[in-house]
């Protein structure tokens, strides 16, 4: 459980309240008791205080849409999970003041340009507001917000105003990067930046030189491949692309096999 261990370690370091959810209990070969024991061992390994050994466990089936507090209990919905979160996880601290958000992700639109995505930490934002972007060097530049979107599931909803706690997508901020702070000029203070880890895996990308080249796909030339890879850098900041001695081959570096596999699939 390397991913579980990674997430749990960081949650404990931040002093967060832990709610464990064991999913897929509907499967015939589910190992609820074994997984519970492994989780307990993981807590014993990572905990630095006895308080961190006090955690709540729920058993769920995302497929059936149920959550229960004990294995074998009948369930009708996931209200038990929501009740547990409300009862044990403290609400986020809301700071009063002017607008402030941390850019945690980016998207790109050929008409709108870069789209800054993140959580509003303070205040409110509306289209046509004047804001300040604070970059990694602490330099500031002014922009006018073009559009503001919130999320309903995976869908973006255009809104006239978003407020503290909302996860939003904002357009009109040129050259914005992950880790930048977007804030009101009245309080242009920067939030702690997100540190992006360096790549750990690299592979070469090249055009198809086999006799079947050009028979599948519309973008088959070196120029098109190069444009696509460097375009990816606008939103995929943990990716690195380098030209090589060969004009039709490029060195691409990512943070893992899955990172590069996703890139390959989106380029197909």
Automatic annotation (TrEMBL):
Domain named Tr-type G: residues: 1-90
InterPro entries reported for this sequence: BipA_II (IPR047042), BipA_III (IPR047043), EF-G-like_DII (IPR053905), EFG_III/V (IPR035647), P-loop_NTPase (IPR027417), T_Tr_GTP-bd_dom (IPR000795), Transl_B-barrel_sf (IPR009000)
Cellular component terms (Gene Ontology): cytosol; ribonucleoprotein complex
Keyword vocabulary terms for this entry: GTP-binding, Nucleotide-binding
Keyword Transferase listed: no
Domain annotation Elongation factor G-like: ranges: 99-183
Pfam families to which the protein is assigned, alphabetical: EF-G_D2, GTP_EFTU
Record field: transmembrane: none
Designated name of the protein: Tr-type G domain-containing protein
Organism name: marine sediment metagenome
């Amino acid at each position: 459980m390397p991913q579980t261990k990674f997430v749990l370690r960081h949650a404990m370091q931040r002093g967060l309240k832990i709610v464990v959810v064991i999913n897929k209990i509907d499967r015939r070969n589910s190992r609820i008791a074994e997984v519970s024991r492994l989780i307990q061992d993981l807590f014993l390994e990572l905990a630095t205080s006895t308080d961190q050994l006090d955690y709540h466990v729920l058993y769920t089936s995302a497929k059936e849409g149920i959550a229960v507090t004990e294995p074998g209990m009948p369930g009708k919905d996931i209200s038990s999970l929501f009740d547990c979160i409300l009862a044990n996880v403290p609400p986020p601290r809301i700071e009063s003041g002017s607008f402030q958000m941390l850019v945690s992700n980016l998207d790109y639109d050929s008409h709108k340009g870069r789209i800054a995505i993140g959580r509003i930490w303070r205040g409110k934002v509306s289209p046509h507001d004047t804001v300040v972007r604070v970059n990694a060097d602490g330099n500031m530049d002014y922009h006018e917000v073009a559009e503001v979107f919130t999320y309903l599931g995976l869908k973006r909803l255009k809104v006239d105003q978003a407020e503290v706690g909302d996860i939003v997508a904002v357009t009109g901020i040129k050259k914005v990067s992950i880790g930048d702070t977007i804030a009101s000029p009245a309080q242009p203070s920067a939030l702690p930046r997100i540190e992006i880890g360096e790549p750990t895996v690299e592979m070469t990308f090249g055009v198809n030189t086999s006799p079947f080249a050009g028979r599948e796909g519309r973008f088959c030339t070196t120029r098109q491949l190069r444009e696509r890879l460097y375009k990816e850098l606008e939103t995929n900041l943990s990716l690195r692309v380098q030209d090589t001695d060969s004009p039709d081959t490029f060195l691409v570096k990512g943070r893992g096999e899955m990172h590069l596999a996703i890139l390959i699939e989106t380029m197909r």
